[in-house]
Amino acid sequence: MNVADLPLTPLAHVFGEPVHAFPADLYIPPEALRVLLIEFEGPLDLLLYLIRKQNIDILNIPMSQVTTQYMAYVEAMEACHIELAAEYLLMAAMLIEIKSRLLVPKPVVEVDFMDEEDPRAELMRRLLEYEQMKLAAQALDVLPQAERDFTWVAVHVESECAAVLPDVSLMDLKLAWLGLSARSQQVQHHVIASEQLSVRAQMAHILRVIANGRYYEFNELFDLQQGVPLLVVTFIAILELVKERLISVTQYAVLTPVYIQLIRAESAAA
């Protein structure tokens, strides 16, 4: 396929129809060029734009080329009846002065080139400082700004307002009670109370039980429901009764039940 046969990309669509060329009677209002010229924020901004547009090393500015382009912009602004600030004209004079100093031939004899200052040095320093400030301003402009990226919201709060307490549910009360109960178990104290048990009183009790004179099995004299302390006291009471010869303990064979019987007074005397 021939390149000429490829469909051309339209410049625009007017009423749905593609337009491939600018109309011959296209009119560009002067205000459009005026807007383009006045968008620079000063002579340094215009000069930096010319340098960066052509990828020129800012430390080795070709003064003749840059001065010519700068003067062309200044003349364009004057042609558009844009009121030039004095600083634009001052920069033009500075460029011309630097260009003139560079064109002036230097004496060959008795010149120390190491000590000679470059006429462009002051301009390069100002351009570098301006570029750094411009980059810093662009970085700050990216940050969110009030009334541009967000709006302050003012809320009126009464200095004295009634406290709104949260609603309490039945589950909240249950959890509060469980927590209180758990804490109380952690701080409670153990109180050891001594039981008032008497060996002598238990001895009298045993004598009353076996007073009828029949044999009682050893286990019948112990009440397991009264706890260990009473069992101990009962056992000591039986030993004391045996020691005082008031009861007799008998067993008919090994591993057979032990029996206890009251010893009558006449038997003890015999």
UniProtKB/TrEMBL annotation:
GO terms for biological process: cell division; chromosome segregation; DNA replication. Keywords: Cell cycle, Cell division, Chromosome partition, Cytoplasm. It is found in: Cytoplasm. Belongs to the ScpA family. InterPro entries: ScpA. GO terms for cellular component: cytoplasm. This is Segregation and condensation protein A. Participates in chromosomal partition during cell division. May act via the formation of a condensin-like complex containing Smc and ScpB that pull DNA away from mid-cell into both cell halves. Component of a cohesin-like complex composed of ScpA, ScpB and the Smc homodimer, in which ScpA and ScpB bind to the head domain of Smc. The presence of the three proteins is required for the association of the complex with DNA. Coiled coil: none annotated. It comes from Deefgea piscis. The keyword Cytoplasm applies.
